[in-house]
Amino acid sequence: MSRPARSVKSLLSLNSRGSPVASRPVTGRQEVRCGTKFSDHLNGVFSGLQFPPELARRILTHANHQTATNGHNASLSFIGMPRSRSRSCGLIAHSSALTPEHDLEDIAYHTLHTYALGEHVGSKWGLGRHLRWVPAIAPEVREQVSDSPDLRKVGLYKVQGDAVTAVVGGIFSQFGGFVAHRVFHTRLLLPMLVKGALHEAFHRDALLVCDRMGGPEGRLVIKSSSTFS
């Protein structure tokens, strides 16, 4: 096992038991069923990949959920965000459209803003239909605003954005950097070609890279190139 792989697995183990949140007893059978359901969903979104049920369950469990004591997605998100940021900065830095007036860090920030990722990428991936989380408002307030789509979306987009980067982190740790690289350019970045996300000056570069990788449905696993990191 390579040094990067060992370090990633060590980081994941630190968070494997989740955070100290209140929870009711959850049976192993319940978690197995959830893991299978979650892996089926992610396998459908990312054709060619087979997510282990335990990994899928962690990816789609937010730290504030009652089952988070069995593992949640915070450390996976922590792994996925810098790798997504490095791909974004690499695309921008090597673009012929980049000028001295462009602020590289600001562009990368808006491209990968958590709420934007949740709204555009998380929604496209259908994460909200399976994500386990609890809105960060008091139960009595939650009941009063249960029919407020705007308020629900604010919280949902945040946790969906965290789940998007957790997906990247999970793919990196399970399938390797090459696959995570292709996921970023063919599945994650394209939904961010909208106002307020990736700067329009770099949309053409993003589309060209995606096209070189086979388009938005391009293969994610290419055996001869599986050592990319």
From TrEMBL:
Residues 53-189 form the RNase III domain. InterPro entries: Ribosomal_mL57 (IPR040030), RNase_III_dom (IPR000999), RNase_III_sf (IPR036389). Pfam families: Ribonucleas_3_3. SUPFAM superfamilies: RNase III domain-like (SSF69065). GO terms for cellular component: mitochondrial large ribosomal subunit. Residues 1-28 are annotated as: Disordered. GO terms for biological process: mitochondrial translation; RNA processing. It comes from the Eukaryota. One of its GO terms (molecular function) is structural constituent of ribosome. This is Predicted protein. It comes from Laccaria bicolor (strain S238N-H82 / ATCC MYA-4686) (Bicoloured deceiver).
